[in-house]
Design goal:
five-stranded antiparallel beta sheet
Length: 110
């Protein structure tokens, strides 16, 4: 899957890794939450909300900052990420064939 940003984000930087796993599920994606030093952020809460269907998908990152979502709809998604000690991240995305994982970099709170 490739995540395409729809709007600008103010609390974090997001980028997609262009090296997709050829065996990845067509409707699944890994979300990796990192700090500025590219270290995984453990116990970050990720919420994906489908714009038209209203479905919500929630996960908490593991000790490496990774959460895997499956059976995602091929529609516009709103992503919200929160983690203790970090600024929250919020943005809108669409899923397309392409990159997995999707990396979100959080900034420390001031």
């Amino acid at each position: 899957m490739k995540w395409t940003a729809i709007g600008e984000t103010f609390d974090a930087n997001a980028n997609a890794n262009a090296n997709a796993d050829a065996d990845a599920d067509a409707d699944a994606v890994s979300v990796v939450v990192q700090n500025a030093d590219e270290e995984g952020v453990e116990k970050a809460r990720i919420e994906l909300s489908a714009a038209s269907s209203g479905h919500t998908f929630k996960k908490i990152t593991d000790d490496e900052g990774i959460a895997r979502f499956s059976q995602l709809p091929a529609e516009r998604l709103h992503v919200k990420v929160t983690a203790p000690g970090y600024r929250s991240y919020s943005g809108d995305f669409t899923l397309e064939n392409g990159a997995d994982p999707f990396v979100i970099k959080l900034r420390k709170r001031d």
